[in-house]
Specification:
By secondary structure, this protein is α/β, with parallel strands linked by helices. Helix content is 31%, strand content 17%. The protein contains seven helices and ten strands. The structure holds 2-phosphoglycolic acid (PGA).
Length: 245
């Protein structure tokens, strides 16, 4: 595991964007795994800048998103579909046909999850998966206790995650209770993982992820087993690390 500690959020985002851009230039038809949340927003901004100013070309790139709320239609302003189009896809030349985001409105959820896994495989697997991390160590919506071998499936959101996301909804009751999420095993199948974290609220989760024992109670700790994982954190998120990096 390669750990980079950056001065701040901007530096974290730029370093992550360089890694993504390098792959897109080297392999224009690569498969990228995208994440939502506040953490990758700076990375997406930088990719948009690179597209406009440096001609970074996404026309052949295939994308798979980690997760989506169950029951929110794609046009809902808190859905992850909306988030991705608003914050990235509408501003780069990605081909709509190559974009994949779990369908929270799928009628047959199990069949959809199976289809999503197959689709990733048929695309040749994910070359680079971008990840944020929850303060409780979740990756995507794989909450503490999730099987470290899990695949794409429906998950119940924990109270802490629903509370963390409540700020985006009018009332706490509107926060969805379920989500579709790639499993920990699905994420670990990516050829390369890029995990980002900023802010002090993530410091404990980052210390567990980089230096703690591997446990399903901190799902992100499994990243220690990945052959090609890079963790980029700002100083605040790195503040509980004991080793020197
Ligand atoms: P955040 O969420 O980027 O909004 O902090 C990350 C996560 O919960 O996975």
């Amino acid at each position: 595991m390669l750990v980079h500690i950056t001065e701040n959020f901007e530096e974290m985002s730029k370093l992550a964007a360089q890694i993504v851009a390098e792959l897109v230039r080297k392999k224009p038809d690569c498969v990228l795994g995208f994440a939502t949340g506040s953490t990758p927003l700076g990375l997406y901004k930088e990719l948009i800048r690179m597209h406009h100013k440096e001609g970074l070309d996404f026309s052949k790139v295939t994308t798979f998103n980690l997760d989506e709320y169950v029951g929110l239609p794609p046009e809902h302003n808190q859905s992850y579909h909306y988030f991705m189009w608003e914050n990235l896809f509408n501003h780069i030349n990605v081909d709509r046909r190559f974009v994949h985001i779990p369908m929270g409105m799928a009628k047959d959820i199990d069949a959809f999850c199976e289809w999503y896994e197959e689709k990733i495989q048929k695309a040749g697997g994910i070359d680079l998966q971008i990840l944020g991390i929850g303060a409780n160590g979740h990756i995507a919506f794989n909450e503490p206790g999730s099987s470290l071998g899990s695949r794409t499936r429906i998950k119940t959101l924990t109270g802490t995650t629903r509370e963390a996301n409540a700020r985006f909804f009018q009332t706490p009751d509107e926060v969805p209770r379920y989500a579709l999420t790639m499993g920990v095993g699905t994420i670990m199948d990516a050829k390369e993982i890029l995990l980002l974290a900023n802010g002090e609220s993530k410091a404990e989760a980052i210390a567990a992820t980089c230096e703690g024992p591997i446990t399903a109670m901190w799902p992100a700790t499994i990243v220690q087993m990945h052959r090609l994982a890079t963790v980029i954190v700002d100083k605040a998120a790195a503040s509980k690390l004991k080793m020197k990096y």
